[in-house]
Amino acid sequence: MKFIQVLIISISVLVLASCSTKISYGDATGVETTTTGFGSTDLQSISAKLVDDLISFPPIVQMTSERRPVVFVDKIKNKTTEHIDTESITDTVQTKLLQSGKFRFVDMAAVKAVQEQMQFQMDSGMVDPSKAAAFGKQTGAEFMLYGNMSSIIKRNSDTKDVYYKFTLKLVSLESGLLEWSGEKEIRKTGEKSFF
Amino acid sequence: MGKIMLRAAIMAGVSMTMLGCAVNETATVVMNSDGSLTQVIESNSDLLAANLKIADTKTGFVGNLLKAQVEIKNDSDDDLNFQYKFKWLDKSGFEVGIDGRPWQPLSITPYESKMVQGVAPNSSVNSFKVLVQD
Fold it and tell me: Chain B residues contacting A, CB < 8 Å?
């Protein structure tokens, strides 16, 4: 009887142990090939390539050696069939450009919060007027960064081929001139395997 | 005796798996204060020692940012699929922009060379390393 009880408990422990969830940390910059869909490696490759292209383009090198132009980041048009958070790509590009010390940015996503804070400083009576941030002193952007993302997907019974193209452009807001444009292409192929 | 053999086989398997996943430094290039380059090539894996060679290294500046180009050659008669990554260091040897660059997949056909390029994340960088893993 005792032997059967021990056996049942042992089997239960083994079953429970085999069902437990294992959690581990991985390298966030590692190559991810779970599916052919847009992934972290694509996002990181796109931002690294385009930032390198932009900061090493000769007219931009010349311009940024004298000053740090102010840039506004517009949305990236997602023309692919997937749901892709393109703001995440522009966020990474913006962070890398800012950290390069070559550009400065105006953050349109924070305009409402900034306006509310300034209104509070001016109207609440709680902030020393001599230390309150004044209206009408903000810097306007000189350039706009925007782009497109498109994809071509082809498949047969065994293979799926996905091609992504990401285009980023820098336009002068005053002259309307396109100062720089960069592209990154990615090809991913998935094949069905029986093993 | 059988148990010892089995243990040895498991240990060898685990070691080989760990070796296969190891990150191996291939080239360290340091820019000296007089503008000259000191290049150190290290190889501590079977993959690199037998198949991959750093054929050439070039550096230059775009504005005040270090730009690096490394020519990697496949010296074997097999296709090689691996990943590479640039690691940027400042004058004191501190890494700049940690996790700023992803591992990039690269495949090289037999006896072919491929150039890989990178631009330093900011002007404090004066040396770099190229890492590869299979």
Answer: 62-65, 67, 83, 85, 97, 99-105, 117-119, 121-123
| Percentage of the residues of chain A whose pLDDT score is greater than 70 | 94
- On whether the CB atoms of residues A162 and A185 are closer than 8 A, the answer is no
pTM for the model stands at 0.78
Q: Spell out the domains of chain B, with CATH numbers in brackets.
A: 24-133 (2.60.40.3230)
| Pairwise CB contact (< 8 Å): B64 & A28 | no
Is A48 in Cβ contact with B101 (below 8 Å)? yes
Q: What is the per-residue pLDDT across B11-30, written as a single tens digit (0 to 9) for each?
A: 444 443 443 445 555 666 76
Q: Is the pLDDT of residue A10 over 90?
A: no
Chain A interface, best mutation among B101, B115, B117, by max A CB count within 10 A: B101
Residue whose token pair is 């050696």: A65
Q: If contacts are CB pairs under 8 Å, which of residues 78-117 in chain A contact chain B?
A: 96, 99-102
What pLDDT score does B101 carry? 82
Phi-psi region of B111 (alpha: psi -120 to 50; beta: other; left: phi over 0): left
Residues B120, A48: contact at Cβ < 8 Å? no
Closest to A146 measured CA to CA, from A114, A123, A172 = A172
**SS3 state of residue A90:** helix
